[in-house]
Amino acid sequence: MENKEQNKGFAQALRRLYLLGSCRTLIRSRGMLAYKLALSAILVALTIILTRIGAIMLQGGQLRVGLTWMPIILVGLLLGPYYGLLAGGVSDLLGVLINIQSGSFHLLLTLNVCLVGLFAGLIQMAFARVTAGTSLLATVAVTVINGAFIQTIGIAQIFGNPYWVQFWLRLPGVLASGLAQYLAIIVLLPIIEQVLPRRSVPVVK
Fold it and tell me: Is this structure's pTM higher than 0.85?
């Protein structure tokens, strides 16, 4: 009888410890979710500023040179493809609503920005860490696929120009933006590493 009572008490103690651990895990996970959403929101705001105010518009609005996609690439690299995709979509839609440079909504261009964050996040998932090499790979992929090809399709449709004419006109500026974005990411990564929780993102080196 006494052994049964002891076993029962031991089982109850284990149950309480389990519940306490579950609560702490839940609190921790909710806190991390809030943190990731806050970081995404900050980088989305930075994207809007860099896109609508901080960029140089050339060729009558057909080419935007600057650090436009750098924050979205960072979201993908640091938080993964889902956050990168959402941050890209939200930043473009909010930018269209703010409409500082009289831009109009174009579905392909919005989807393209979503893909910027998605591609960066997928590269981070493939290598499971953020390094200068993965940052370079993400920036090159985004610059070539999204900047040189997909975005050019949308711009050509808006301005009514032949695709390849638009492509060669935009290419030098797209490459210059890609280089600037990579250099900015390399500068920012060590700073971000100092303020991020150690378990929130892959190792940054």
Answer: no
Q: Which of 110, 34, 124, 114 is nearest to 79 (CA)?
A: 124
Q: Give the pair of three-digit tokens for residue 111.
A: 């989807």
Determine the length of the chain: 205
Give which of 117, 116, 110, 124 is closest to 146, Cα–Cα.
116
CB atoms within 10 A of CB 110: 18
**How high does pLDDT run on average in the chain?**
79
SS3 85: helix
The pLDDT of residue 143 is above 90: yes
Query: Average pLDDT in the 110-122 region?
Result: 93
Which residue from 182, 98, 201 is spatially nearest to 140, judged by alpha carbons? 182
190 pLDDT higher than 90: no
35 contacts: CB under 8 Å, gap ≥ 6: 197, 200
